[in-house]
Specification:
Number of strands: 8
CATH superfamily of the largest domain: Homing endonucleases
Helix content: 55-70%
Structural class: alpha+beta
Order of helices and strands: HHEEHEEHHEEHEEHHHHHH
Oligomer: single chain
Largest sheet: 4 strands, antiparallel
Strand order of the largest sheet: 1-2-4-3
Shape: rod-shaped
Distance between the termini: 71 Å
Length: about 325
């Protein structure tokens, strides 16, 4: 079972105790995956079609609990795709259909099918608990959520922009920043941030799926933190190794070209120490000197050796070369 199906199965088993919340959830289901039809005599019929058994089961349960309407679930099997099934739940009695449409505010005073889309004007979703139920019903009807082990993505597909805006505003009432994108004929309300998907699962009252998602997030964040630390340490090691290799090249060049005899004592000492301990850190090199020298002092001497090596390369090995230092510089070295 996919994570999206797992969430829907959990939500299908979640039934609000209050009748007004049940009606709000039912309204979202009908609005997003239902059809309201009338025959030539003006009799109403409500039908929802879904490929998810949990959604069909939830719709059936809400009709029974809220309006005491019993319906049959018709299962259609795709002859070409053996695993593909669709479930159809129909309220065919005109009286029952009108009761449902009136309660869910999908039928206006003139007897016409009409939905109140502005959130502030829709009495159906004024209470916080009803908004939770409405979002739950919308997700059951037309929502999906990606496997959080791969990436974070939550969405609900709406057939109209007005419906998408309504749903976005209802979600925003819980401090969650959903966005809308057009995809083919749908206006998709989506959330991509992991922490906000956790929040929307909490809003829809799916605690088991929420905990699973949180556990996955913790593991991913720990792995990410470890990887960043390892990458940082690896980069520092590479930088240190590269610097040490360059230092050895410069010191070896000076030794082979003119020797250490013309170097100030401080430079000659650190040059010999680096050749003797090619893998040592600056701190270890400084501690091996007599008297010991700090990291900044060792680094300064190594930079000086590097500059002298470059000077020597420019003048050539055969040229007469002497490192020029004042008495103050030699004392510092």
């Amino acid at each position: 079972m996919s994570f999206s199906s797992q969430v829907k199965d959990e939500l299908a088993r979640q039934l609000s105790p209050a009748r007004h919340c049940q009606i709000a959830e039912l309204a979202a289901l009908i609005s997003l995956c239902g059809k309201v039809q009338t025959d030539e005599n003006g009799r109403f019929l409500i039908r929802i079609s879904t490929e998810n058994e949990a959604v069909a089961r939830k719709y059936f349960t809400l009709l029974k609990k809220t309006f005491n309407i019993s319906t049959d679930i018709v299962i259609h099997q795709n002859v070409y795709l053996r695993r593909s099934k669709s479930y159809q739940v129909t309220v065919s009695d005109d009286k029952d259909a009108r009761r449902v449409l009136m309660a869910t505010k999908l039928l206006n005073s003139g007897g016409q099918v009409e939905e109140v889309l502005p959130v502030v004007k829709n009495r159906l979703i004024q209470n916080t608990c009803c908004r939770r139920a409405f979002i739950r019903g919308a997700f059951l009807a037309a929502g999906s959520i990606s496997d959080p082990r791969r990436f974070y993505h939550y969405e609900i597909a709406c057939l109209s922009e007005d419906k998408a805006v309504q749903l976005k505003d209802v979600i925003a009432a819980f401090g969650i920043d959903a966005r809308i994108v057009v995809r083919k004929k749908y206006h998709v309300v989506y959330i991509k941030e992991g922490s906000q998907i956790v929040e929307i699962l909490n809003v829809m009252e799916a605690p088991q799926s929420l905990m699973e998602l949180e556990n996955i997030r913790i593991v991913k964040e720990m792995r990410g933190s470890v990887n960043r630390q390892v990458n940082c340490e690896t980069a520092n090691i590479n930088k240190t190794v590269s610097a040490a290799v360059k230092q050895l090249e410069d010191i070896t060049y000076i030794r082979d070209a003119v020797g250490f005899g013309h170097l100030p004592d401080g430079l000659a000492e650190v040059a010999r120490a680096r050749l003797a301990m090619p893998d040592a850190t600056l701190k270890e090199l400084g501690e091996s000197l007599e008297p010991p020298v700090g990291k900044s002092g060792v680094n300064h001497r190594l930079r000086k050796l590097s500059n002298l090596a470059e000077e020597l390369r420019e003048k050539g090995e055969t040229a007469e070369w002497r490192p020029g230092h004042s008495r103050e510089e030699e004392e510092k070295l």
